[in-house]
Design goal:
Mean pLDDT: 85
Number of helices: 7
Shape: elongated
Strand content: under 5%
Number of strands: 0
Distance between the termini: 41 Å
Helix content: over 70%
Largest sheet: none
Oligomer: single chain
C-alpha cells in the first residue's frame, strides 16, 4: 500500500475501518426495519465482506462476495432443480456428485470471468442451496443474492462517504478547531 499511514486508536484493533464496518452493519440492519418479514443476516454479512480498507479494496471484496453469490446462487438453483427432476423427493446421494460438478463449474465460471475471488462466497451459497435450502429454493436463492447486494451496496456507500482521506481531513480540522479555541480561551 502506497503511503498508508494507519490511524492508531486508543483501543487496539479499533480503527477507522472497524468503525466503518460496524456502521455499515448497523445501517444495513436499520434498512431491514423497512423490509418487513426479511432477515438482515446475509445483508449484514455482505456489508462486513464489502467494507475494505479503501474504495478499491471495497469494490474488490464486495465484488467478490456479490459476484460469487450470484454465480453460486444460479448454479445452486439449477442443480437443485436437476436433483428434483431426477429424484422428485430429493436425494442426498445425488447431491454429492452435483456438489462436485457445481463446484467445478463455479471455479471455471469465476476464472473465465476473471473474478477468482468469487469462488469462496459462491461455494458457500452453492452448498447452502444444495444442502440447507427450504422447499422454496428459488425465492430463497434470489433473496440471498438480493440481500448480499444490499449489504455490499451499503458498505460501498459507507466507505465512499467516510473515506480515509475525508475522515482524516475531518479529524485534523476538528483538532485544529479545538486547538484554536483553546488558544483563544487561554
Amino acid at each position: 500500500m502506497k503511503d498508508h499511514k494507519p490511524v492508531h486508536a486508543p483501543i487496539p484493533g479499533l480503527g477507522l475501518r472497524s468503525l466503518k464496518t460496524a456502521l455499515a452493519v448497523m445501517l444495513t440492519a436499520v434498512l431491514y426495519l423497512f423490509l418487513p418479514g426479511r432477515n438482515p443476516t446475509f445483508a449484514c454479512i455482505g456489508a462486513v465482506f464489502g467494507l475494505g480498507s479503501d474504495m478499491e479494496n471495497s469494490r474488490l471484496s464486495g465484488g467478490n462476495r456479490f459476484f460469487g453469490t450470484i454465480i453460486g446462487g444460479f448454479l445452486g438453483m439449477g442443480l437443485y432443480a436437476a436433483e428434483h427432476f431426477i429424484a422428485p423427493a430429493g436425494s442426498y446421494l445425488l447431491r454429492l456428485p452435483l456438489a462436485f460438478i457445481g463446484t467445478i463449474i463455479l471455479i471455471m465460471a469465476c476464472v473465465l470471468c476473471r473474478w477468482p475471488g468469487g469462488v469462496q462466497p459462491g461455494g458457500v451459497v452453492l452448498c447452502i442451496i444444495l444442502f440447507n435450502t427450504p422447499p422454496n429454493h428459488m425465492s430463497y436463492a434470489f433473496a440471498r443474492m438480493l440481500d448480499t447486494g444490499i449489504g455490499v451496496a451499503v458498505a460501498l456507500f459507507v466507505n465512499y462517504l467516510f473515506s480515509r482521506t475525508r475522515l482524516e481531513h475531518w479529524m485534523h480540522s476538528a483538532a485544529g478547531t479545538e486547538e484554536g479555541q483553546t488558544a483563544e480561551n487561554g
